[in-house]
Amino acid sequence: MRRSGELIQWNNKSGYGFVRDQSGRDYYVHISAVSGDARPRLGDQLSFETRMGRKGRPSASDVTVIASSPVPAPSLRQAIQSPSGISRYHLGLRTAVATLLTLLILFIIAADRSLLWLGLVYVGMGVGSALLYRFDKLYALAGQYRVSESNLHLVDLCGGIIGGLAAQEVYRHKTVKPAFVATTWAIALAHLLCLTLLAFAGRFL
């Protein structure tokens, strides 16, 4: 008699697990008994025939997946993992530019203590920008309402560019779309030029 049940245990590497039928009885299932090319996942609903397997244990045969379990959305930690072969400590261009901007701000403050407010603005806006990128990444993973790109650019333009660049690097977010990337680099370049002028212009006057 054909039965149905839920796959409650599965070793994907070894290709075996157990399916529990509606009466609560468990049956051993091997990948060789599953029809189709795709491997089953935990929570899948299976239809199967029963037989007596090795050592007299009940086993499933002629197994088909009748309902797949939903694929869980990746967590933020999984989403930002470095691709295979790339060190997680790899220094990207965004991190390098953010570091350069930070050093320029520290140089300016060291030369003129009255400009301490400038550093505070960059710190505050940078933290705000980094949080916005983090929330947008989480919303994207969850399929929820997103932070608008114009708001991200506006915060970066108003001093959050260091946090924005760092967040793009860390969360691997907003680094592919050409228009967004181009605008981000335009904002970064504008800040770099302004800070460079502020740091060194007085020396040449």
Explained architecture:
The protein has 205 residues and is an alpha+beta fold. The protein folds into 2 domains: 3-67, Nucleic acid-binding proteins (OB fold (Dihydrolipoamide Acetyltransferase, E2P)); 76-204, no CATH class. It is built from 5 helices and 5 strands; from the N terminus they run βββββααααα. The chain has helices spanning 76-79, 93-111, 116-142, 149-171, 178-200, and strands at residues 3-11, 16-21, 26-30, 45-52, 58-67. The chain is rod-shaped and about 85 Å long.
Task: Please name the defining characteristics of this protein.
205 residues; alpha+beta; OB fold (Dihydrolipoamide Acetyltransferase, E2P); 2 domains; 5-stranded antiparallel β-sheet; 5 helices; 5 strands
